């Protein structure tokens, strides 16, 4: 059944009619031509489709497009909307934090979410002191917090230092 | 995926009214489980009533020192909530042990309680499954079941319409079971409160039903009573990989000591049953007795005496016995 919605992706508002079964991921890729977020598993298991929804990282394959009305969607492309690469883009290039690159936009948006969550003092499963309310993004913290993003090329060894560099810049890592 | 009508209500009562008129409809929370099940053809609602932000997104103080958690609070926010981390460490740890950062941002408190089993026969429509298709039998009992139940299951043979060895997948619910939380529910006849121990049900002779809720009843919130000694509590989870996997077994425990005597104790288990399993046999054995490793181990073994493991999940029995023992030893040492 069709429904009229307006999606706001990377700063652009687009009205469109979608079948209610359409995921946000498919609406972006197939209808808006915004192919930054990738389809890996389509089950919320791989993280390739990760976007920021009102600033929070989510799997866009599990979000129905009709529920995203009125929310701001940001893809990895949108993090460089003014043409200037985001610090995470630069760090991934500097550290060669990818091989095929298919998972990279999801890794980048997920890392942006990790940095924002750490800045709020949110703990993770490997945080020793739950009550402290401050978070130091150690390598172990980055690995745990990024566990929802799989990389079949196994570029993890370079992804961790790439995220760590930006964490240091942003003051959530010594 | 079956076609469906998408509906939004202006308040919880409106949502209840919408679903009361849709016998094949369902509520949509974060959708992290339901949308996937719809894509797999396991769930086939013809109407979705969006309640993701309809119930409360607040965590409020209760007069007794407990917390009232709105059903719409995302799992990530609940784990990040300072009062949860301070008062109920086991609850924060359980939430953080579940899923991924992306999923915790989207999944709701109410939806977490109602997520379906991850038994692979349930999620594969080409397989027999009494939960998904009542009367079709159980593929797991003679198949892949190393992740499935050892306590409270119904095992009558693969062709029986009753057989079900599914496990409840939630980490959060195990901690809430240990904390004696109560679930606030809104139905067509008004509000009621369900102790969390009465929310989920064993498969019995009807594996298709996970909970005691009637169609159209909406979880609006969860009350967690005060438990001052829960500041010394812990959630531990064993899984096949270090992160982002469901529990093989898990333990949520809190320990209250009077010197070297157990004044009170709470133990709940995940990954072992169709429900978050409260270890009352072990709790009763420990209360008033010595807080020693030997006593903890004996109590854990007494709890697991009721286990009826199958060929490939028998490892869970010693694993969870050791987990209970080790967790209590750690809590006792932390207390000293």
Strand content of chain B: 15-25%
CATH architecture of the domain at 233-335 in chain B: 2-Layer Sandwich
What's the average pLDDT of chain A? 97
Quaternary state, please?
heterodimer
| Average of the residue pLDDT scores of chain B | 97
What spatial form of chain B do the alpha-carbon principal axes imply?
A: globular
Q: Rg of chain A from C-alpha positions?
A: 16 Å
Helix tally of chain A? 5
The SSE string of chain A, one letter per element, is EEHEEEHHHH
What pattern of helices and strands is seen along the backbone of chain B? EHEHEEEHHHHHHEEHEEEEEHHH
Strand proportion of chain A: 15-25%
- Given the helix and strand composition of chain A, which structural class is it? alpha+beta
The portion of residues assigned to helices of chain A is 25-40%
Structure description:
The complex is a heterodimer of chains A (174) and B (336). By secondary structure, chain A is of the alpha+beta class. Chain A has two domains: 2-78, Roll (Ubiquitin-like (UB roll)); 87-169, DNA polymerase, domain 1 (Orthogonal Bundle). Chain A has helices at 24-32, 87-94, 104-119, 139-145, 156-169; strands at 2-9, 12-19, 50-53, 56-59, 72-74. In chain A, strand 1 (2-9) and strand 2 (12-19) form a beta hairpin. In chain A, helix 2 (87-94) packs across helix 5 (156-169). Chain A is globular. The mean pLDDT of chain A is 97. Chain B has helices at residues 12-20, 34-39, 75-80, 82-87, 89-97, 101-106, 109-114, 172-178, 196-199, 280-286, 293-304, 316-335, and strands at residues 5-8, 26-28, 47-50, 59-61, 67-70, 182-187, 190-195, 218-224, 233-238, 249-258, 261-270, 277-278. In chain B, the strands form three sheets. In chain B, strands 4-5-8-6-7 form a five-stranded antiparallel sheet. Chain B has a four-stranded antiparallel sheet with strand order 9-10-11-12. Chain B has a three-stranded parallel sheet with strand order 1-3-2, with helices on one face. In chain B, a hairpin with a 6-residue loop joins strand 11 and strand 12 (277-278). In chain B, helix 11 (293-304) packs antiparallel against helix 12. Chain A binds chain B through residues 1, 3, 19-21, 23, 42-44, 47, 50, 53, 56-59, 62-64, 66-67, 110, 113-114, 117, 120-125, 127, 130-131, 133, 143-149, and chain B through 1, 3-6, 28, 31-32, 35-36, 38-39, 48, 50, 52, 76, 79-80, 82, 85-86, 89, 92-93, 96-97, 99-103, 105-106, 242-244.
């Amino acid at each position: 059944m069709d429904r009229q919605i307006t999606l706001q992706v990377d700063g652009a508002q687009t009205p469109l009619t979608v079948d209610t079964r359409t995921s946000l991921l498919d609406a972006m890729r197939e209808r808006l031509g915004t192919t930054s977020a990738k389809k890996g598993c389509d089950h919320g298991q791989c993280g390739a489709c990760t976007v920021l929804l009102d600033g929070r990282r989510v799997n866009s394959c599990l979000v129905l497009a009709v529920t995203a009305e009125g929310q701001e969607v940001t893809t990895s492309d949108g993090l460089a909307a003014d043409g200037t690469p985001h610090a995470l883009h630069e760090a991934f290039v500097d550290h060669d934090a990818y091989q095929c690159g298919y998972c990279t936009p999801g890794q980048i948006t997920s890392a942006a979410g990790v940095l924002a969550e750490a800045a709020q003092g949110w703990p993770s499963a490997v945080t020793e002191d739950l009550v402290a309310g401050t978070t130091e993004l150690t390598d172990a913290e980055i690995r745990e917090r990024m566990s929802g993003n799989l990389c079949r090329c196994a570029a993890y060894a370079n992804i961790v230092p790439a995220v760590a560099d930006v964490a240091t810049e942003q003051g959530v890592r010594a | 995926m079956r076609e469906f009508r998408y509906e939004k209500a202006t308040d919880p009562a409106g949502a209840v009214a919408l679903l009361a008129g849709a016998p094949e409809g369902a509520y949509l929370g974060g959708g992290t489980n339901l949308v996937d099940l719809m894509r797999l053809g396991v769930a086939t609602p013809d109407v979705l009533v969006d309640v993701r932000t309809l119930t409360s997104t607040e965590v409020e103080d209760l007069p007794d020192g407990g917390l009232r958690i709105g059903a719409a609070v995302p799992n990530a926010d609940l784990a990040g909530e300072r009062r949860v981390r301070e008062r109920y460490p086991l609850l924060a740890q359980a939430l953080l042990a579940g899923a991924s950062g992306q999923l915790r941002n989207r999944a709701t408190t109410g939806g977490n309680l109602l997520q379906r089993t991850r038994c692979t026969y349930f999620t594969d429509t080409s397989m027999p499954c009494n939960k998904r298709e009542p009367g079709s039998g159980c593929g797991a009992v003679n198949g892949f079941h190393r992740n499935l139940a050892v306590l409270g299951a119904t095992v009558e043979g693969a062709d029986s319409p009753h057989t079900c060895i599914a496990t409840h997948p939630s980490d959060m619910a195990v901690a809430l079971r240990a904390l004696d939380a109560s679930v606030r529910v809104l139905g067509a006849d008004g509000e009621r409160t369900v102790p969390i121990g009465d929310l989920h049900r064993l498969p019995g002779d009807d594996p298709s039903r996970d909970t005691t809720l009637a169609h159209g009843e909406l979880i609006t919130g969860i009350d967690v009573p005060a438990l001052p000694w829960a500041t010394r509590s812990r959630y531990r989870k064993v899984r096949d990989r270090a992160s982002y996997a469901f529990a093989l077994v898990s333990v949520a425990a809190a320990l209250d000591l009077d010197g070297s005597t157990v004044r009170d104790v709470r133990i709940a288990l995940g990954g072992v049953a169709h429900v978050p399993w409260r270890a009352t046999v072990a709790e009763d054995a420990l209360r008033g007795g010595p807080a020693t490793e030997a006593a903890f181990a004996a109590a854990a073994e007494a709890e697991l005496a009721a286990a009826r493991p199958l060929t490939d999940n028998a490892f869970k029995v010693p694993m969870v016995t050791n987990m209970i023992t080790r967790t209590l030893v750690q809590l006792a040492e932390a207390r000293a």
